């Protein structure tokens, strides 16, 4: 493992330290800061020539600053003659803008893919992309991990009875079905539509039986929690005994924490692909560590082993 180097920007250093602890290597030394004029400066403080470099940086809030930090770090490693540079992006910001669903709008997820590649990334390691087709936006290898096993094992341990897994929309149905199979539970699907561009959703129907059951909603991320609260209220109105929620990415922007606090949802279980600290902490929010999964994937990539075997 001598040639393996793991670095981080300022987006989620706690996660990076946990990954290096799993790998039993020191975290790479680098200066990454912002001048008073808001220009970002990066300096690598150790030799990385011909090394296998992994840069851990979720593209989360402040999203544009963290994205530019990542791009500048990739460029620094490229110019320092690193052998291979893997961008480890646990949360792929702008992933929801993955197609032209309105006239005259960008496909920003593709733009970010191009930026990462041009900046110097030879490989991408990420977790639960918003849409699987984002992998095809890259001309470099992409390893997409999933937190579904992590979430499934947690709820298996709770030994809940009469569970029904609920996909929060049609797009997440495949992942929800996989979680339902893991829990040996039936599947229900929320039919909803998004109204405008302000993250407001309208629930139209619940496909499946939820009355008298414990509902477990699954999604790739929780942003403002407006959709989550709407879903929970609908399920309770359809006779669900209790509602639990899980997702991979705890974005928790805007009024999310207040909405979750006042919602009848029993527990919201998330992975720590994004920092959950300070005002984002609630007793009903359970955070599961993603570092062992990322660490094992990094070790397998470095040693030329199968990453897919992690999920077989």
Count of domains: 2
What portion of the residues fall into strands of 2 or more residues?
25-35%
Number of strands: 14
Structural class: alpha/beta
Whole-number mean pLDDT: 94
Distance between the first and last residues' Cα: 25 Å
Order of helices and strands: EHEEEHEHEEHEHEEEHEHEEH
Query: Which regions contain 5 or more consecutive residues with pLDDT less than 50?
Result: none
Radius of gyration: 20 Å
**Could you estimate the helical fraction of the residues in percent?**
25-40%
**CATH classification class of the largest domain:** Alpha Beta
Question: What coarse outline follows from CA principal-axis ratios?
Answer: globular
Q: Please tally the helical runs, counting DSSP H or I stretches of 4 or more residues.
A: 8
Biggest sheet strand line-up = 10-9-8-11-12-13-14
CATH architecture of the largest domain: 3-Layer(aba) Sandwich
* Biggest beta sheet attributes: 7 strands, mixed
Describe the structure.
The protein has a seven-stranded mixed β-sheet, with helices on both faces. A five-stranded parallel β-sheet has the order 1-4-5-6-7, sandwiched between helices. The protein has eight helices and 14 strands. By secondary structure, the protein is of the alpha/beta class. The chain has helices at 13-23, 63-79, 108-119, 148-158, 173-183, 226-237, 256-262, 291-303, and strands spanning 4-8, 30-34, 40-44, 52-56, 84-89, 123-127, 142-145, 163-167, 187-195, 200-207, 214-222, 242-250, 267-271, 285-288. The protein folds into two domains: 4-146 and 291-311, Rossmann fold; 148-288, Rossmann fold.
């Amino acid at each position: 493992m001598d040639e393996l180097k793991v670095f981080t920007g300022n987006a989620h250093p706690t996660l990076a330290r946990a990954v290096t602890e799993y790998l039993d290597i020191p975290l790479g030394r680098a200066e990454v800061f912002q001048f008073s004029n808001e220009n970002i400066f990066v300096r690598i403080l150790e030799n990385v020539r011909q090394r296998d470099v992994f840069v851990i940086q979720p593209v989360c809030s402040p999203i544009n600053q963290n994205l530019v930090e990542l791009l500048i770090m990739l460029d620094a490693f490229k110019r320092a003659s690193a052998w291979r540079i893997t961008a480890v992006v646990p949360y792929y910001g702008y992933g929801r803008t993955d197609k032209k669903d309105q006239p005259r709008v960008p496909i920003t997820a593709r733009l970010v893919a191009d930026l990462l590649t041009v900046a110097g990334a030879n490989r991408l390691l990420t977790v639960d992309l918003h849409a699987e087709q984002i992998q095809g936006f890259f001309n470099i290898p992409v390893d997409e991990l999933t937190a579904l096993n992590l979430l499934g094992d947690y709820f298996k341990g709770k030994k809940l009875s009469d569970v029904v897994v609920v996909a929060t929309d049609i797009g997440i149905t495949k992942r929800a079905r996989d979680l339902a199979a893991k829990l040996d539970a039936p599947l229900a699907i929320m039919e909803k539509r998004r109204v405008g561009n302000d993250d407001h959703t309208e629930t139209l129907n619940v496909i499946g039986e939820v009355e008298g059951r414990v509902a477990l909603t699954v999604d790739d991320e929780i942003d403002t929690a407006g959709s989550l609260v709407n879903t929970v209220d609908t399920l309770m109105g359809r006779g669900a005994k209790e509602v639990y929620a899980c997702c991979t990415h705890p974005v928790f922007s805007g009024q999310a924490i207040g909405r979750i606090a006042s919602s009848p949802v029993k527990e919201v279980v998330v992975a720590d692909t994004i920092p959950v600290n300070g005002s984002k902490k609630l007793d009903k929010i359970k955070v599961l560590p993603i570092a062992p999964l990322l660490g094992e994937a990094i070790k397998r990539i470095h040693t030329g082993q199968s990453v897919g075997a992690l999920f077989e």
